[in-house]
Amino acid sequence: MSEDKIADALLWHLSQFSTDLPIMFPGFSEAPAGPYIRADLFPAPAENAALTRWVLHTGTMQLGIFEKQGQFIIEPMAEAARLAAHYRDQTIVRDGVTVKIIRPPSVRGAVYSGGWMQIPVEVRWTSWVRH
What we know:
This protein is an alpha+beta fold.
């Protein structure tokens, strides 16, 4: 299985991000009471390379800077920009898997829901894995 190793590499890299905000990794259901970062992984279907044992894995990791509604947007936007820069031009190697960030991460516009403001950061990745 390589999906677990790819997820581990992406989330490990997130754990190396220097921030005062708590990070809510996938699988945790209860959000912190104050501002936080949330990570969600969206892998695409894997593709076999013709006549080889290599499989192409691609996907998106969406990171969100969450802040209570009613707060000024500048600090969460600045944190989102720092988070995007943390993944820009990265090749992450961990546990025998190489994950390449294939596009500059993008900071999206604010989303408001349930009393929270979210600033999404989209990280597109790819990984060739030999099976």
